[in-house]
Amino acid sequence: MSASVTVPPTAASPGGAPKAAKRPSGRRAPKGIRKSEGIAGWLFTAPMLIILGLFLVVPVLMALWVSFSDWSGRGSPFASSVNFVGLDNYDELLAGGGLAERDFGVALRNNAWYVLLVVPIQTALSLFLAVLVNRQVLKGRGFFRTAFYFPSVTSSVAITVLWLFLFGASGAVNKVLSWFGVNGPNWFQDPSGVVHNLLATVGITQGPEWMTGNTTLGVSWWDWWAGPSVAMSAFVLMAVFTTSGTFMLLFIAALQNLGGDVQEAAMIDGANGWQRFWRVTLPQLRPTLFTVLTLGLIGTWQVFDQIYTGTQGGPGKTTVTPAYLSYTSAFESQDWGRGAAIAFVLFVIIVVLTIIQRIVLRDRPVSKRRMRAYSIASSQTANKEGRA
User: Fold this and answer.
1) What 8-state DSSP symbol labels residue 66?
2) For residue range 112-162, what is the model confidence (pLDDT) as tens digits?
3) Which helix (H) or strand (E) holds 60?
4) For residue 196, which of 168, 171, 229, 167 has the smallest C-alpha distance?
5) Is 373 among the domain residues?
6) By the 8 A CB rule, do 339 and 327 touch?
7) Cα–Cα distance for residue pair 271/374, rounded to 1 Å
8) What is the CATH number of the domain that holds 301?
9) Residue 377 neighbours by CB under 8 Å, 6+ apart
10) What domain count does the chain have?
C-alpha cells in the first residue's frame, strides 16, 4: 500500500510545465545586516579613535607645522608672530653646510652603526634562545624563559646606571679582561671608532684622499667608516642584553605554532638538523622574522633614554643620536623647528627602511625548476629506501 503525497499547487509556466516557487533573493537582507554591524563597529571604536586623534594625530600634525615654521616654543605655534619658513629647517639639516648639518650627519653616522650592529645580533640571539628554550629535552624551560626575559622588563634607566658601573674604568668588565691580560678601555670616555682602532693595529691610521676629501652631511667618508665609538659599543651590548628576551618570546610563540608534518617529511627525505632548520623551520618563521626586524629597526633608530641617562652624547658627540639631537635642539637650544624637522627626517628613514625590509622578506613563489628538482630528489630518496 503506497502512501499518497499531496503536492501543493504551483503556478504554471506559459508552456504548461509547473513553475518552481521563486526564492527570495536574499541579497538585500545581509546588506542591511552589514550596514547595522558597520554602524555598531564605528560606535564601539569611536571613543578610541577620538582619543588617538586628540593625543596622536593632532600633535603629529602640529609638529609637522612646527617643522615648517620658526616657532620659538613660546605661545601658540599658530600665532600670527610665527612665520612659515618652508623647507629652511630641512635645508639647514641636509645641505646647510654649517654646524647643524655636521651634527645631524654625526648623529646619523652613530645611529646607523648602532642599528647595523644591534638589529642582526639581537635577532640572531633571540632566535637561538627561542630554539634552545623550545626544545623538549631541556629541563627547567620556564626558569630559562623568565631569566632571559627579565632584562626586558627592567627599567632602561636602571640598566643604564648598572652599565655605567660595569663598563667604568675600574668596573667589573675591565676587571675580567685583566684576568686574560687585556687592558680594557675607559669605555664611556673613549671616542675612538672601533673600525679605525682595528685598522690602526695593522698600521692604517689615515684614510685615502678620496675618502678624507669627500664629505656627506658634513662628515668625511673616512669618518663615516670609523665604526661605532667604544662608548657606543657599550650601548650596543646593552641593547642586545635588554631586548633579546622580548623577541625570544615572539619566536617561541611562532615555533610552537609550527606543524610537525613538514619536519617529519624532511627527516624522511634525509635532511639533517641544520638543513631542517634552514630549509623548513626558518622559511615558516618569515612573518615573525619580519615583525622582529621591524620592531628592532624602529627601536634602534629611536634610542634616546640610554643616551640621555648615560653619556648625553659624549664623548666627542660619538653617542649622539637623531632622537637625542632632536631633543637638545628643541628643549635646550629652543630651535623647535629644527628639532621637529629632525624627527620627521628620522620618520622618513624608518618608513623607507621598513618598506625595503618588507620587499626583501616578501613571500616568493617557488619556481618550476625548484619544484621539479625537489620532486626528483624525493623520488630518488624513496627509490633508495625501497631498494634497502
Assistant:
1) H
2) 999 999 999 999 999 999 998 888 767 777 888 888 999 999 999 999 999
3) helix 58-67
4) 229
5) no
6) yes
7) 12
8) 1.10.3720.10
9) 269
10) 1
Pairwise CA distance, residues 26 & 150, whole Å: 56
In angstroms, the CA 246 to CA 214 distance is: 41
Q: How far apart are CA 8 and CA 258, in angstroms?
A: 56
Q: Please provide the average confidence, as pLDDT, over all residues in the chain.
A: 85
Q: Is the pLDDT of residue 18 over 90?
A: no
Q: Say yes or no to pLDDT of 172 above 60.
A: yes
- In the block, cell 652599565 appears at 163
Classify residue 3 by its DSSP letter.
P
Look up the domain containing 288 and give its range. Answer: 89-363
Query: How far is 159 from 290, CA to CA, in rounded Å?
Result: 27
- Quick one: which of 98, 109, 96 has its CA closest to 221? 109
- Asked, for residue 10, whether it belongs to a domain, the answer is no
pTM: 0.83
Mean pLDDT over 322-338 rounds to 94
Cross-strand partners of 18: 12
pLDDT score of 388: 54
pLDDT tens-digit map of 200-258: 999 998 889 999 999 999 999 999 999 999 999 999 999 999 999 999 999 999 998 88
CA distances in angstroms from 313 to 6, 18, 25, 302, listed in the order given = 93, 89, 70, 14
d(CA 265, CA 269): 6
| pLDDT over threshold 80, residue 77 | yes
